[in-house]
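Teaching assistant here, posting this on the class forum so everyone can see the example we discussed in section. The complex has two components, and the goal was to see what a joint structure prediction looks like when all of them are supplied at once.
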Amino acid sequence: MAETLHNLLLGFQVVLDPSVLLYAFLGCIIGTIVGVLPGLGPLAGISILLPISFGLPPTTAIVLLGGIYYGAMYGGSTTSILMRIPGEAASVVTCIDGYEMTRQGRAGPALAIAAIGSFVAGTLSVVALMLLAPPLARFALAFGPPEYFALLMMGLFVLSYMSSGPMPKTLTMAVLGLLLGMIGIDPMSGYNRFSFGVHELSDGLGVLPLAVGLFGVSEIMLAYGTRAMRPMKPRFSELLPSRAEARASIGPIGRGTVIGFLIGIIPGSAHILSSFVSYAVEKKLSDHPERFGKGAVEGVAGPESANNAAACGAFVPMLALGVPLGPVQAILIAVLVVHGIAPGPLLIAQQPQLFWGFIASMYIGNLVLLILNLPLVGVFVSLLRIPYTYLYPVILICCIVGVYAVNHSMVEVLIMGIAGAAGYGLRKLRYDVAPIVLGFILAPMLEMAFRQSLAMSGGEYTIFLQRPITVALLLVGAALLAIGLIPAVMRRTRLKEAAE
Amino acid sequence: MRLAVLALSIAVGFMTSAAQAQDKFPSRPVTILLGYPPGGSTDTTARAIAPVLERIIGQPVVIQNRPGAAALIGTMQVANAPPDGYTITVATTQLALLPAVDQVFGRPPSFTRDQFAPIALVSADPSMLFVNAKTPWQDFKELMADAKKRPGQIVYASGGLYGTTHLAVEIVLKATGARMRHLPTAGGGPSLTAVLGNHAQVLAAHPAVGGPQARAGLLRPVATLGTKRVAAFPDVPTLKELGFDAQYYQWNGLFTQAKVPEPIITFWREAAAKAVKDPDFIKAMEKVGSGIDYLDRDEFRPWWDEDSRKTEATVRAIGKVQ
């Protein structure tokens, strides 16, 4: 413990150097902007600024890019809450209840809870990262394809909690999402599926164009059609959460942090799922699950905390073992390589100033983001006072530019447009679009993990029964399914009894 | 008045055409267009050479990444760029690989290798074969003896189907006659994670990728797929020393379009020859753990042809995966 404190002091020494501190601030601010702009996620932000970082000393570069990453995670919720447009993939869930809060004139409290939840989750996760990185990284490595598959199967259960609508409609949308997720190169055979010769489709539809289209563009179209869709003007006396809202958020923030961090350290792109899982957990635990989808503050507090904890957790294997979990970490590792630092299991021992400097920068970054975001709540909320005739065209342009900027691809802008029109139609028919996005995210991961497991075993399905973590996860999943079915079974027996 | 305008425009027209005639290549910024995302080995090589080229040619050199569809999108853009020498690329096996994969699937090729003109080979690092350190195989012989005893039982990971890490192991397996099971993953990082977690046991990787893990005792290097031993691992034998004629290099070369006029290609060859001797470039490549293996166009072309033939043959041998 004393050694950790000593090391942390070393870290703060590194970060409190004015030039490093400046870049930490800069990273947070750029990240917030990147997160707020719809369509432009953390990956795009980091890719765009990567060339600049090559000219900086390694610690400064990592502090800058890290700041952009978690800054974007903070900022991503802003447009979700205010306009139902996800700023990045992980804040799709926040659209559901966050935007409902805005429509009820509670945009300020929703934004404030998102910022406070992100701060708490971010800070607690850094503590965990600091104290436990090496053992956690070893745990993360135990997650191979079969374990991942079992985990994602549990993700399928989450699907059923993603909507407050009737179950057949929810599942229809989930299946549509799963099908859309099949588009692109099959990673196990190299075959191009459903791409019809369009090369841009070989990497799949892309979660950002799809989500921005389904949520944001469709919302803009709906708002022009109906006057009633427009949110109430926010009351400026109510920018901060009420006492009841604050009390209701404590539990979701705590649970969201744990869920997010644990999902975050697992290899693969599971971190996107963390916010969905947190939402489902809060809905399940709530005494009034019917409030979800109608502006429940828990539906903002939990997922937003989970999403930031996961962002932090994803650094565990990168810093402790030098292996990237997702594309963002892969870029950060490349930054280290370009500076002649070999990222590997010896990184913490050989480059203490880098590891501890980064840890210290995350403490400072979280604080900066909280200080930056809370006063901005008022600014963002006042955006809603702009007449929609002016506001919506500007937002639409932002969506198009943001989606285009990621890969310089007009095809993705087109996907966003089609998704927008489809989302408009579906929502007119009272279908929820959130299950589409979750199904879309799950499908390729689930398929890959399943087929990788079978590739490992040579086609033997017993591989799922031979590995302790896999078995445990599948049992938990089966138990969840059973618990979910009990009410339905009970009802049927009662009906039978009544009939007799 | 009208006459004056006419005279002026004619005068301006003469001046610009005169300026164009005097123009020496390059008279405007040059683009290095890449098929791979930032942070990969073609990208780090491009970023190491770009500032040096900038100084040599006296024009800005802009790097553009156009990743997607396993580098197909960016590579096609290079192939179809105007052949004026203003678009060059740092490329690797994808030039032979992607058309070969198209052929396996019976698709018309999205581009062909003869749309590209080589300028110079910049680097060629041998892949190394690593095994998880928890496995019993202490060296290459033990690994292969076990693989022959249990054909198709040992699992190797790769960064993706038909990718460099897949081809490297397939070439080794073909040379030794052993069989193993293939676990494709979503990239270099995930394949490394799979072997570190012992979900797969064998991996072919660049020495700079597997090296840190080997020094930490998590991976064990068993063979070098080059003709010489790797300086960082003097105890690891080459396949040739072990009695197998197989090599696999992860290389990066400078290319432009085949239709670029010869004088401009000569210009780029001279610029590349100067760049690889530049201390800044040497230092930058040292940092990313890559050697410099310069070959000028005339030696590079047969080398590239040979490498491409090997790549095409291996892709055909793998064929369609069922």
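For the discussion questions: The beta strands of chain A are 184-185, 192-193. Residues 2-152+231-406 of chain A form one domain. Think about how each of these relates to the inputs above.
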